[in-house]
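Hypothesis: this fold can be encoded by more than one sequence.
Test: take the structure tokens below, design a sequence, compare later.
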């Protein structure tokens, strides 16, 4: 075949012909493979996003449930429910009109800000006790993102709410709001007020709360762990759930995730519909139906807008909630890269034909340059330059094998460097709180004393010990004790100024270095602020056993000018604080 054609022409012709045939076959297979891979990649991404949203929602509801149980068993909640219920009874009659008049109608604050009123100053026992407990519950609602918090006695009377809306001081069994999902949450728990019982409603529009979508989470409250005295209810706005579902990162131009309730109405807003869609827009699709039946999967379908999309779906079930989570992206966007791929393929075939004529590329350069490049890389690796790019590692010949070995060497060097940094960090930081250890703060204190000898800038050393920490460990368990220590560490870090330093030196003992002070009085002011911050901040972690702080202060140069003496003075001052009243500072 082609015997009469010179080899100088025949060989290029044969090579080019087979190259073209190979390119065409490869292009067709590549097109098909790319289409499948783009779909598989999009499906994988949607499923990953779906699982991420689901996990975030589960964590949110579990956190609220845990928070609800904790506060239903706290002394503060039980005392508030008992005392406010007694005060309610002392009003004798017309409690609804009296309390709504005092806290809503005559409330000097605007609608939506009624919770700002702490004491109606009407001389009643109720107002006295409202003044006692309202700041706590108002702060709890604000910090945890609850729209409202309710205390309801066993007869269904709403003896307390934070927001003071029209449901305040009404009866949930026979009052104006007896047909709402707030009343339903109370009634179900009230009928079975056993320990550990809780009930969560689905989101519905709630008229007293400006007709916004709200859900109610209720648990019974027991006095002394036995006697049922009422119900604690959290009102949960949908804005957090909506914000989770509205994250568009990784969704491209046409992707979105939505929540669908068992009524096939949206529980989150759509990126592509105007205005509020929650509890208004209907999602009657095959994916939504499958997810609501407990199925998980992905498929192409026409979505609620009439657009062809790839839709991934999974159920979300938590207590009484039966929702569907759907992640979808338009099919046109998924396959859009194929158009560019076809153009690139045509160009590559043309370029490939030209490249075949350049087969006489100098082999020496093909081998010598990579080896010289790797020699430079090895030299840089020897100097611990670990960010270099080994660009020839994809070759399949002996040069490629050398590059791959160099990649392994680089990886080992990176791991060794990382391990060394981790060991250095672990040696100087407490694993529980993340604070520096005794060794690191001792070095810092030595540096400060040296700096003082040069600059004569005063500084303070504070020795801190948590009061009642052993009681927390023995009574509530070491896991609560660990939470106390971690919270204390965060409070220290949040209270200190720039340039100050704090370390945990063992158990419940901490050392603080306060720089840039003018005199001892300024150090004591800072110390008192730290004591107050610890007392306030740890109430949320250990509500039943108060954990406070005894703090000893030593000032350089007034008390001492060397490291050992300053620590000893601060330690002795701390023990004086312990012997006085605890929860204080001493010098």
């Amino acid at each position: 075949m082609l015997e009469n054609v010179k080899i100088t022409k025949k060989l290029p012709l044969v090579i080019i012909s087979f190259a073209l045939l190979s390119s065409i076959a490869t292009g067709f297979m590549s097109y098909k493979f790319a289409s499948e891979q783009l779909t598989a990649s999009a499906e994988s991404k949607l499923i990953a996003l779906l699982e991420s949203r689901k996990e975030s929602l589960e964590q949110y509801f579990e956190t609220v449930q845990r928070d609800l149980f904790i506060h239903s068993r706290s002394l503060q909640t039980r005392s508030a429910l008992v005392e406010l219920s007694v005060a309610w009874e002392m009003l004798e009659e017309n409690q609804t009109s009296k309390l709504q008049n005092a806290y809503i109608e005559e409330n000097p604050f605007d609608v939506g800000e009624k919770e700002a009123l702490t004491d109606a100053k009407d001389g009643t026992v109720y107002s006295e006790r409202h003044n006692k407990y309202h700041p706590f519950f108002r702060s709890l609602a604000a910090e945890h993102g609850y729209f409202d918090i309710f205390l309801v006695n066993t007869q269904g009377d709403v003896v307390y709410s934070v927001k003071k809306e029209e449901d305040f001081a009404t009866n949930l069994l026979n009052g104006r709001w007896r047909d709402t999902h707030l009343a339903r949450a109370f009634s179900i728990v009230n009928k079975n007020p056993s320990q550990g019982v809780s009930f969560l409603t689905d989101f519905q529009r709630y008229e007293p709360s400006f007709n916004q979508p709200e859900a109610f989470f209720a648990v019974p409250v027991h006095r002394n762990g036995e006697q049922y005295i009422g119900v604690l209810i959290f009102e949960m706005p949908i804005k957090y759930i909506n914000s989770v579902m509205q994250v568009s990162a990784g969704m491209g131009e046409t992707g979105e995730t939505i929540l669908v309730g068992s009524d096939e109405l949206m529980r989150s807003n759509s990126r592509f519909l105007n205005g509020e869609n929650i509890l208004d827009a209907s999602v009657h699709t095959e994916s939504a139906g499958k997810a609501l039946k407990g199925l998980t999967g992905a498929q192409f379908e026409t979505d609620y807008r009439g657009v062809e999309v790839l839709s991934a779906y999974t159920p979300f079930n938590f207590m009484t909630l039966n929702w569907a989570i759907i992640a979808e992206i338009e099919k046109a966007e998924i396959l859009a890269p194929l158009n560019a791929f076809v153009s690139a393929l045509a160009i590559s075939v043309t370029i490939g034909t030209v490249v075949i004529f350049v087969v006489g590329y100098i082999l020496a350069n093909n081998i010598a340059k990579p080896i010289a490049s790797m020699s430079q890389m090895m030299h840089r690796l020897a100097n611990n330059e670990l960010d270099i790019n080994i660009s020839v590692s994809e070759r399949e010949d002996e040069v490629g094998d050398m590059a791959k070995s160099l990649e392994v060497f680089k990886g080992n060097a990176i791991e060794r460097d990382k391990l060394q940094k981790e060991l250095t960090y672990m040696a100087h930081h407490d694993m529980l709180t993340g604070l520096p250890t005794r060794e690191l703060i001792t070095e810092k204190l030595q540096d400060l004393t040296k700096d003082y000898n040069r600059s004569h800038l005063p500084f303070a050393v504070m020795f801190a010990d948590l009061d009642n920490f052993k009681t927390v460990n023995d009574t509530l368990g070491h896991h609560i004790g660990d939470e106390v220590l971690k919270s204390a560490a965060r409070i220290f870090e949040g209270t200190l100024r720039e340039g100050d330093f704090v370390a945990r030196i063992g158990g419940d003992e901490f050392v603080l270095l306060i720089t840039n002070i003018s005199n001892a009085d300024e150090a004591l002011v800072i110390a008192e602020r730290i004591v107050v911050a610890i007392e306030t901040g740890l109430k949320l972690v250990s509500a039943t056993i108060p954990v406070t702080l005894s703090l000893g202060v030593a000032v350089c140069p007034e008390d001492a000018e060397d490291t050992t003496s300053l620590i000893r003075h601060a330690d002795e001052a701390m023990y004086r604080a312990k012997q006085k009243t605890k929860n204080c500072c001493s010098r």
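Residues 7-72 form the longest helix (66 residues). The chain has a mean pLDDT of 87.
Hypothesis status: open.
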